[in-house]
Amino acid sequence: MPALTVITTGSDQKQIDELHGSLIPWTQPFEKVESLNLGMVEHLGLAYHEAILSCGDELILILHQDVRFASPSQLNDIASTSGVPEWIVPACRKEFNPLIKAAELLEKPNVGLLGVAGSHGLLNDMAWWQYPDLSGVVIHTIDDKPARMNPYGPWGNVLAVDGLVLLTKREKLERVSEPSPGIKGFHFYDMDFSLRMVAAGLEVWTIPLIVLHSSGGATTEEKSWLEGLMDFSITWGNSLPATIPFKPLRF
To answer: Fold for domain 4-248?
Structure first.
């Protein structure tokens, strides 16, 4: 297997250590695993862009610091839970490693960006998760509340993915335009990244990688989120709404 670089941001070392601990069952096949923490940044899209370009030809995994990979035992529990959609169960098999699947996908010349959740299309005035047709899975864990699984829909070829988990390679980014200067901060950089990939002729996919995210997701009433939405609409408004034919992932 190729080498792997894990890129994170933030300054909560306890969270970052727990994140890296959750990766151990899945990173063992890789010949070399390195980590790069960017610390506190003001422009996530630009910070990720520059960090990716500093890497070599390895697989690049980008994570929010409050993400954890589901453990093998947690995946076993998910597969045996009543009511779990049937399309999720194969991703919980003991022999399945989502990072190996990601590496295989990114070996394809037409595949540029992977994530764990996304949408078949985008509207001009909404986030990806407000689109009616979604893809992927995220388990939200907030304080002491019961974990909440969001099974958005089967994994596959989508128009945009969420930024809490991203996978790509430097050679893919070198074919893509730089981050849109109008999109700053912590919101909508992922949709900008996805659309720039698609504009460069590269496909964006969700993959069967199940993670726990200690957040309830974005709050659409926050000033920073509303400002980000306005910046995104100004930047991409002429290209939206947009959609692509959904192709399910075979694995």
So the answer is: Spore Coat Polysaccharide Biosynthesis Protein SpsA; Chain A (3.90.550)
